[in-house]
Amino acid sequence: MGALARSGGFFLHLALGAEGRSSVGTHVTRAGAVLIAAALIALGVGLIQAL
Question: I want to staple 2 with a disulfide (CB 3.0 to 4.6 A). Which of 17, 29, 36, 49 is the partner?
Fold first, then answer.
């Protein structure tokens, strides 16, 4: 989900954004990055607990 949001956000910004200003695509891209980071943290915690 996070990877789709990251790449989709780039295309949204390309279509709707203006140079030098934030757009809905920027927000979607940032939300995707947060989702990926949360997934990596959850993965790391799960791996440590499995030891």
Answer: 36
pLDDT digits (tens, 9 = 90+) for 11-39: 999 999 888 888 999 999 999 999 999 99
DSSP string, 2-35: HHHHHHHHHHHHHHH--TTS--HHHHHHHHHHHH
Q: State whether residue 1 is helix, strand or coil.
A: coil
Q: Alpha-carbon distance 11 to 5, whole Å?
A: 10
Residue corresponding to tokens 């990251």:
6
In terms of Cα–Cα distance, which of 29, 28, 25, 3 is closest to 12? 25
